[in-house]
Amino acid sequence: MTVKIAGYVLLLLVWTIVKVKSLRSQQKNKEAVVYGCILVSSALVGSILLARVNLPSFTEPARMLLEPIGKMLLKQ
To answer: Total structural domains in the chain?
Structure first.
């Protein structure tokens, strides 16, 4: 299990370095930062999923956030 996670993170790390260097050589610094952040977050989520950790559901926080807005819109 640890080897899978380490391999996954290593593969994404190498790919990120190559791609970010390519973007920076084209003077696309903002795109390189965004791309790096997206790949780092995907590496975190992917390694958690490979470790078979149960992630909390997104529906409850979204419901708590959007329910008052929906009720307000229905009152109008």
So the answer is: 1
Angle between helices 2-25 and 29-50 (to 10 degrees): 170
DSSP string computed for 29-73: HHHHHHHHHHHHHHHHHHHHHHTTPPPPPSHHHHHHHHHHHHHHH
Place of tokens 């909390």: 56
Threshold 0.85, pTM exceeds? no
CA distances from 11 to 25, 26, 33, 76 (A): 21, 23, 19, 52
Distances in whole angstroms, Cα of residue 7 to Cα of each of 30, 60, 69: 28, 33, 44
- Enclosing domain of residue 57: 2-75
The per-residue pLDDT for range 41-61, each reduced to its tens digit, is 999 988 988 998 887 777 888
